[in-house]
Amino acid sequence: MESENIELYRQELTEEPQYTKIVESAFQVIERLKIPINDFQGEAPPMPEDITNIPDTELGEHLNKQTQWAGYLSQKLAEFESYHTVLTNELEFTQANIHTDYLRDPDVNKTKITERKELMKTDKRYVSLNREKLRYEIICNIIKANLNATNNNWLNLSRQITLKGQDQQREFRSHNALNYV
């Protein structure tokens, strides 16, 4: 059983780079969700380069779009974190099953516990679930990075709206002060 699992694992590694496929698969999901990756723009709301000269109404529109995008990203993050949690639990259950299988195998049962744990990591059941788990980790990390960027955009727009409001109040007060002089 041990040599069979190791051989299957080695065969999979030599046939094609599996972890590269996991990353590519994760990026394909991200692109389908229209979440920007590097130069990919998708449908994320564009952030104006210079927000200091934008009218208040346009700033409000940008702020609203960023809020909606953050809500969408939060929803997708929760969804994919749920998948990740399920896979983590499945992986733990599979590890327990593999461990039980190894205890029943007289050849493997004679090996040291550390060797059995290493052998377990080469089991095809473990490898495939671990790949899926890694895929969801990558997806979650990219969504988190985009959510963080969207929140930063929202804060910048909000800060600019606040500054414009303070400037208007200052102008109003100075205008009123001149009327009383």
How many individual β-strands? 0
Number of helices: 6
Largest sheet: none
Give the rounded overall mean pLDDT.
78
Measured between the Cα atoms of the first and last residue, the distance is 96 Å
Query: Strand pairing plus helix content: what structural class?
Result: mainly alpha
* H/E element sequence: HHHHHH
**Percent in helix:** over 70%
Tell me the β content.
Answer: under 5%
Rg of Cα set: 27 Å
Which regions contain 5 or more consecutive residues with pLDDT less than 50? Answer: 8-17
Shape: rod-shaped
Features:
6 helices; 181 residues; mainly alpha
Characterize the structure shown.
By secondary structure, this protein is mostly helical. Helices cover 81% and strands 0% of the residues. It has helices at residues 2-15, 18-32, 56-104, 106-109, 113-120, 124-180. The protein starts with a helix and ends with a helix.
Structural topology:
Blueprint: H1 2-15, H2 18-32, H3 56-104, H4 106-109, H5 113-120, H6 124-180
Helix pairs in contact: 2-6, 3-6
Quick recap:
With 181 residues, the chain is an all-alpha fold. The protein has helices spanning 2-15, 18-32, 56-104, 106-109, 113-120, 124-180. Helix 3 runs antiparallel to helix 6.
